[in-house]
Amino acid sequence: MYDIKLIVGLGNPGLEYQQTRHNVGFEVVELLTKKLKVKLNKEKFSAAFGQAEFEDKKLILLKPLLFMNNSGQVVAAVANFYKLTAEAILVITDDMALEPGMIRLRAGGSAGGHNGLADIIEKLGTDEFNRLRIGIGSRSQTPGRDYVLSRPSETERNLIDKAVTEAADAVMVWITEGVETAMNRFNRRLTSDNSSEIDKQ
Questions:
Q1: Has 114 been annotated as catalytic?
Q2: H helices of 106-153, where?
Q3: Which helix (H) or strand (E) holds 82?
Q4: Could you tell me the pLDDT band of residue 138, with boundaries at 50, 70 and 90?
């Protein structure tokens, strides 16, 4: 019998949101589909849905097709259908509290002001699911909603692209070796000079 794991990338559906800061979770899932040779060619549970078998595990990859603030409806529907524990779920999302180029994996915790995570916590009734946060930075002069729905500068984009690649690698370690090993290996600054690169803009 397969061990089932659910991997969810958060973002907003639609061409107008592609490459925005808020959609980095989608980008990680898209990269994972290439690594795992799976296509998100079905629409199930109001999400782009794909399945893969890897290392005696059944993997479910999702990109919710509802908007970010309603992500919990999708995650809860899949979790209930497959009778998943919170520990079998990994949610990938952007985070304004982290600089571009940084990633952080955690086995649980608060929403940290992220509406998508808040909705998932509410709908699942627990905050003990795994989450992988990708830094997008913040700009104090720009309202949060406008900032996350905009596209990063070229310098930031380069850092975010590296973080997306690193995040996909972290997911693969989470699948095969568990959250503690993945945290120990990937919870570090992707580059040592992120701050200086951003300051040059």
A1: no
A2: 115-124, 144-148
A3: helix 71-82
A4: confident
**What does the alpha-carbon distance between residue 39 and residue 34 come to, in Å, rounded to a whole number?**
8
* Domain CATH code at residue 64: 3.40.50.1470
Cα distance between residue 27 and residue 13, in whole Å:
12
Residue 19 CA to residue 26 CA, distance in Å, equals 9
What CA–CA distances, in Å, run from 93 to 66, 82, 131, 163?
A: 15, 22, 8, 12
The catalytically annotated residue of 22, 104, 123, 131 is 22
- For the chain, the domain total comes to 1
Q: What is the residue range of 155's domain? A: 3-199
In this prediction, residue 192 has a pLDDT band, given cuts at 50, 70 and 90, of very low
DSSP three-state, residue 186:
helix
- Please choose, from the candidates 44, 24, 31, the residue with its C-alpha nearest in 3D space to the C-alpha of residue 157: 24
